[in-house]
Please model this.
Amino acid sequence: MCIFCSIVEGGIPSKKVYEDDDVLAILDISQTTEGHTLVMPKKHYDNFLAMPKDEFANLMAVTQTLAEKITGNLNASGCNILINTNAVAGQSVMHAHVHIIPRYSDNDTVSFTFSENIFDLDEVLKKINRD
Ligand code: 5GP
Ligand code: ZN
Model:
């Protein structure tokens, strides 16, 4: 059973930030920062790659509107929009969702580290664009 499907169906309680026919946004139980929100399609998809493009586009349009509202009303200085895809990337709930993580100038303990590695960029491009 999928936790987020249960939340969509009302079997598990949640703090709803926004809801329409297709999309539900709830406060993340972990509150990485104040206002940390999850935006998800009501229909189950294992991750965003499995979503039809128009449904994903709509999900991101809602995410943009909510990110503006959340950062504005919580006086955040910015936000991170994060989609973890598959376990290797940290996805723990296998129902597509987008994180809105408001960022604050003070008392903000979030850190993303992009380590640097060396690859032959032409080779990388060739691999990406192969049929
Ligand atoms: P992921 O790691 O899959 O990208 O993110 C899943 C998120 O769902 C986590 O940040 C976790 O805190 C949150 N989460 C897991 N279970 C629940 C729940 O029952 N309710 C809410 N509101 N959030 C949850
Ligand atoms: Zn689900």
Remarks:
- The chain has a mean pLDDT of 97.
